[in-house]
Structures are given as structure tokens and as C-alpha cells.
Design goal:
Layout (H helix, E strand, L loop, with lengths): L4 E6 L6 H9 L4 E5 L8 H8 L10 E6 L3 H14 L7 E4 L4 H13 L7 H4 L3 E5 L4 H13 L2 E6 L2 H14 L4 E6 L9 H8 L2 E4 L10 H6 L5 E4 L16 E5 L2 E4 L1 H19 L6 E2 L1 H10 L3
Parallel strand pairs: 1-2, 1-3, 3-4, 4-12, 5-6, 5-8, 6-7, 8-9, 9-11
Antiparallel strand pairs: 10-11
Helix pairs in contact: 4-6, 4-10, 4-11, 10-11
Length: 298
Amino acid sequence: MLKKILIQLDCDPQPSTFDAVVATDAGVDVLLRHGGVTKENVVPLVHGAMFTRGGRDLASTAIFVGGADVASAEAIAATISATFFGPVRVGLMLDPNGANTTASAAVVAAARHLPLGDPESAAGCRAVVLGGTGPVGQRVARLLARKGVSVSVASRSLDRAAAVCTRITATVPAARVEPLELSGAVRERSAVGGAVVAADLIVAAGAAGHTLLDAEGRGVATNARVLIDLNAVPPAGIEGIIATDKARTDGAAVVYGALGVGGLKMKIHKAAIQQLFSAHDAVLDAEELLAIGERLEP
């Protein structure tokens, strides 16, 4: 039996050790790591994966694209996909900065307490994604919108939030998304405050060092059934949530911290690496990773 070879392509100068460890723990036999990869220099690396094995043996080779620069990683993945032709292709997984696996884990966690699996019921759910223009926030918003949830994308820049909504509707035409400007404290009279009042789900996906929903904001979130803070570094993105919270009941809501979601993220990451080798044409982006997470045992 051929060895399973994973080619880790990273847009950072040094490829991620985190991604390398997860790949090893997922059972990869040989890990080939390349840093400083760009859309301009990736094609020869892809050719090396495509033309060294043939037929069914191609399923024993796969490519993982990562790195801190999400836009660059996405451009690399697009170039890889365009390089493949006919049946000459290998499995491809995209998870820059862990954004896809983290967003998928957050949505799976939320679905344990909200009816996101039923399109009619999900259509009645409202969500606010704070820090919604960052790598993880964008994907949380997209995945929720694809479920039929009405999503408010909140950012300090209304223009950036609007741009995210435009990108989501380009891929999910039926998406119900709206941009909101997050400035200062969340209050009921503000646009963001109004969205928070109505929200069944609030996800904080902003950068470390910023509290996006303080105690006053939480007091406004009277309808919220699930609160998820994806920031592991103090201060909390949602005041009162600690990183290790996992389905903790806090008032009327169930709350999750970054580490509480992180265990599921790791399970999704490992299961996805294993699935990469199930077929030579596997392509795993955020939606596919979410599907993997939904199949995992709670």
C-alpha cells in the first residue's frame, strides 16, 4: 500500500507547526512542508503531486493550504484548482489561520442548541457575528447564512461589513445578511444594539484584545440562547465568558469559550485530513468541513 503523503503549502515564511502536528496525529505517513508559497510559485509544487502517481494511487497524495494571510491562501488554493485537469488531481484542503475549522466548530456547537438543521426553523433564527469581517467571522456568517439564518455582520467599518455581505450573497444568493457598524458600547438604541436584542445567537470573532460585547451589551441580549466567544486571549470578546466554557448555562443562554469550541475544531481538522485521502478529487473548504463536524459524535 502506498504511503499517504500530505503536501503542506503555507503562505508564511515558515510553515505552521500546529498544522504539521495535527497532520501527523491524523495519520499522515509523509509530510512535505513548504513555506513562502504564493500563487505565482505554487504550480510546480502542484505538478509534483499530480504527475508522480496515477489512477487510484492519486488518492494517496493530498495538499493542505494554510498560513496567516487568508486572502493569499485562498488565491493559492484557486491556482491549485485551476492547475488540475480531468482526473489528474489530488485531494485539497483549505484552512488558513484555522479559520474554516474554527468557524465550522462554532456553527456545530450553536446547532446543538438551536434548530439550524431544519431550514424552516433556521429561517426564524437571527444571529449577530461581532468582528464579522475577520477570517473566522466571515466564515461563521457564510455558514450560518447558508443554513438560512438571518445574519448581522458587525464591524468597526461599515464598508468592510458591507463588502463581506456582498461576498456572501455572491456565493449564497438566498442569504439574508446585513452589515452593521460596531462603534463603542452596544446599546439597545443603536443599530447593533437592536440586532443584539433580537439575536438568538451571538458569536464574537474579533481580534484579541477587544471586548466586543460588554456587560451592558449582554444585558441588552435578552433573546440570546447561545453566546460563543472565539477569542482565547484576555480580555474576553464577550464579557463573562471564559475560554474553557463549554455549553455552560449562564442565565438564559448557553455559553462557549474558545477552548470549549477548540476541542471540536481539532476533531474536525483531524477527520478532514483523514477524509482527504478517501478520494483523489476531494476538496474541503468551509462548507465541507462543517459537514464533517456535523457527522462527528457530540
